[in-house]
Amino acid sequence: MSSSYQNTLEFARDLDKTDTLYSFRERFLFPQHEDNDVRYFCGNSLGLQPRSVSYLMQKELDDWGKYGVEGHFRARNPWFSYHHLFSERLAKLVGAHKDEVVATNTLTVNLQLLMTSFYRPNRDRYKIIMEAGAFPSDQYAVETQVRMHGFEPDDAIIEISPRNNAYIIEEDDIIAAIEQAGESLALVMIGGVNYYTGQYFDLERITEAAHKAGAYAGYDLAHAVGNIPLHLHDWTVDFACWCSYKYLNSGPGAVGGIYVHEHHGNDPKFFRLAGWWGNEEKTRFKMEKGFVPQKGAASWQMSNAPVFNMVAHNASLDLFDKAGMQALREKSEQLTGYMEYLLKLINHLPFEIITPAEPSRRGCQLSLLFKERGKEVFEKLSQSGIIADWREPDVIRIAPVPLYNTFEDAYRFYEVLANME
Asked: DSSP character for 19?
């Protein structure tokens, strides 16, 4: 595809003219720089605000004012069942049945809850495989779960690293580690898309290998949901969790999400920590002893749905439903590919792209590793009205998000770098 790209503004604008998703850009609010919209490439850290959020929030505020506590059942979107608003749309996004998903809690809370259910080690089967350099919250969660069960992280956790002088992790090495761990392996827990490099892992293949070894397979999809088409049910993934403030544009600290395969979620004897909102809805207000889990992933809920926290999530999922994940992925590959083509034309700045070159192995992210001057370049980008993401010690991450980024955005990014001394 790169052979057909051109490094001209006219070419970028022509691509925008034929982009069927271009109009979705108008549905978001952009920060301003010198009275113009910034070029926003930070959706892998915090997505932009959908314009409809303020309207939807006002509806909930009005219903709270009008009904008080009775809003739980009389609000236009009754708060008692508010989490049900998300089930079908989330199921589409992650390739699941609607009972296998729920919007609840936040990412690391969900990861700890799920690992409490799926990491039930014994003296012989207690090891966990994860990628080296995982996002810190994943590392902390795994370490504490291991210690809670009386094991030492240095013994129980197997970290898979890139090969010498490489930045990405080969799936063959993950599979080999699973096979080597064999009957000592309890769980594989990997980030679906690595936050630092943007590498997308072959979750279907990893899940199959984990199950063959007799272990569970679970994933942190913070950087994958809304970015990559997923088929969690068909891949027989055991569990997954995610946040919604990155590609799902649901605001800082927004509600997270859980997926649990129906084989586990529909088994009332499968262990989960009990919370009032996870109890069977028909008997919830009987206020009786004895937790009766409702069907599916919803039984991992702990407390009332945080309605105001969920409003932006509702707005954003409407946009995903209208755009369609397949169309978003097609644009993502083209947009990221165009940025990669342009960046490779720059040879006066000391950086290399450490994100996999194959579209199937990456999300809508490019990570630029600078041998020097990285922070200086990042600051100059900011001064030019371009918002990217700096990650210590030497990487600028850029996320060309198909819902609101354009091909002209990509060209303008290149233009600033190309003219940088």
From this structure: -
- Give residue for tokens 């899940």: 207
CATH topology of domain 58-320: Aspartate Aminotransferase; domain 2 (3.40.640)
DSSP 83-146: GGGGHHHHHHHHT--GGGEEE-S-HHHHHHHHHHHH----SSS-EEEEETT--HHHHHHHHHHH
Query: How many CB atoms within 10 Å of residue 213?
Result: 21
Q: What is the pLDDT of residues 151-203, one digit of tens each?
A: 999 999 999 999 998 999 999 999 999 999 999 999 999 999 999 999 999 99
Residue type at position 183 = E
Alpha carbon 328 to its chain's center: 15
Q: Helix-strand-coil percent breakdown of the chain, rounded to 5?
A: 45, 15, 40
Rounded CA gap, 373 and 90, in Å?
41
CATH of domain 2-51+325-418: 3.90.1150.10
Query: Is pTM beyond 0.90 here?
Result: yes
Rounded to whole angstroms, the Cα distance separating 276 from 135 reads: 30
